[in-house]
């Protein structure tokens, strides 16, 4: 067995492994390498295990380093699950050993492997995060019948609110970004650059979509989705607070579920949440089932990996200030900070 860093010449065999291995996720796909490198400028190290000239395991890694948040080697940042996939425990361990060697060489504070399943390697694990999944059908009425009576009533009410829903791709990027950037500012969180979303739309034509929700000619909500195999994920969504009385999030997600069914997907991913949070409760209403995430980590001295906790005094004051900055300022400064957040 050999472990090495893949190059562009390995893109095709890497993709073949991803397409044929059932444990590979959307974010194991080779084109995400371009997205992260081009949109954020972080170097990536895509490890490939080979035996007798055949790919037997992969591990995509991205290196981040900043004054604000330290250094991290992660598989992979910004998304929920893209850790080690291997044909055997032996290959898992070999890929981990090479990742640790690389982490030492880069002098990172920690290595993090974001998995959607337990792995055989012995590492500390964080289990605070889940993704929430539900089944979808081509017929909206079948989706409706899976909801509780209360949710069906809520959906039918927003259907009469006069909001218009449209789906496209890059045509709606400005609408999505304007609503998303405002939501992130209001949450006290730096926003990603618009270029990040542009590259996703360029790299995944026909698999990345934007939903635009309008009322009286104004965009009041939007969602950004990416699909792979039978599953489509609502990666990012937002609505304007001044439209809260219209319940735009209810209208948005109902239409996202119906769109997923129409496009032939069978599973809808509401995205990552912390158990017990408000977004977690909102997603459960749709009949979503939590699926545990396993974020394994390694540190040079065995200490606990650092946590980016918004309740920490270190960040609380910064969040308070960020919420009060003009939107033009947060849109200008935010992307340079957001690229450093894992």
What does this structure look like?
With 342 residues, the chain is α+β, with helices and mostly antiparallel strands. It has 2 domains: 2-123, Gcn5-related N-acetyltransferase (GNAT) (Aminopeptidase); 130-291, 3-Layer(aba) Sandwich (Aminopeptidase). 37% of the residues lie in helices and 29% in strands. Strand 12 (231-239), helix 8 (248-262) and strand 13 form a beta-alpha-beta unit. The radius of gyration is 21 Å and the shape is globular. The two termini are 31 Å apart. 39% of the residues are buried.
Low-confidence stretches: none
- Cα-based radius of gyration, to the nearest Å: 21 Å
| CATH class annotation of the largest domain | Alpha Beta
Classified in CATH, the superfamily of the largest domain is: Gcn5-related N-acetyltransferase (GNAT)
* Number of β-strand runs: 15
Portion of residues in helices?
25-40%
Give the helix tally: 11
**Mean pLDDT score:** 94
CATH architecture of the largest domain: 3-Layer(aba) Sandwich
What percentage of amino acids are in beta strands?
25-35%
Which topology of the largest domain does CATH recognise? Aminopeptidase
Secondary-structure element sequence? EHHEEEEHEEEHHEHHEEEHEHEEHH
The helix-and-strand class reads alpha+beta
Distance between the termini: 31 Å
Q: What can be said about the biggest beta sheet?
A: 8 strands, mixed
């Amino acid at each position: 067995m050999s472990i090495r860093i893949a190059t562009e010449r390995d893109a095709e065999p890497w993709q073949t492994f991803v397409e044929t291995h059932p444990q590979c996720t959307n974010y194991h796909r080779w084109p995400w390498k371009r997205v992260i490198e081009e949109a954020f400028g972080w170097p990536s190290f895509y490890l490939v295990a080979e035996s007798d000239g055949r790919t037997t395991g992969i591990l995509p890694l991205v290196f981040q380093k900043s004054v604000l948040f330290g250094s991290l080697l992660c598989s992979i940042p910004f998304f929920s699950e893209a850790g080690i996939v291997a044909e055997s425990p032996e290959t898992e361990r070999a890929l981990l050993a090479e990742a640790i060697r690389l982490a030492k060489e880069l002098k990172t504070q920690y290595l993090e492997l974001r998995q959607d399943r337990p792995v055989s390697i012995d590492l500390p694990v964080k289990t605070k995060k889940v993704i929430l999944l539900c089944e979808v059908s081509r017929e909206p009425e079948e989706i409706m019948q899976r909801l509780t009576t209360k949710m069906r009533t809520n959906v039918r009410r927003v259907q009469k609110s006069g909001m218009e829903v449209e789906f496209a791709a890059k045509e709606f990027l400005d609408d999505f970004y304007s609503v998303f950037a405002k939501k992130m500012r209001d949450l006290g969180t730096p926003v990603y650059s618009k270029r990040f979303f542009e590259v996703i739309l360029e790299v995944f034509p026909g698999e990345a979509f934007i939903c635009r929700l309008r009322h009286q000619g104004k965009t009041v909500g939007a969602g950004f989705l990416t699909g792979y195999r039978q599953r489509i994920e609502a990666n990012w969504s937002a609505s304007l607070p001044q439209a809260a009385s219209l319940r735009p999030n209810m209208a948005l997600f109902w239409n996202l579920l119906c769109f997923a069914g129409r496009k032939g997907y069978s599973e809808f991913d509401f995205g990552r949440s912390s158990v017990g949070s408000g977004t977690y409760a909102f997603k459960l209403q749709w009949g979503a089932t939590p699926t545990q995430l396993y974020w394994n980590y390694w540190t040079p001295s065995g200490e606990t990996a650092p946590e980016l906790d918004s309740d920490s005094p270190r960040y609380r004051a910064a969040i308070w200030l960020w919420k009060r900055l003009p939107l033009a300022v947060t849109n200008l400064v935010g992307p340079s900070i957001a690229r450093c957040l894992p």
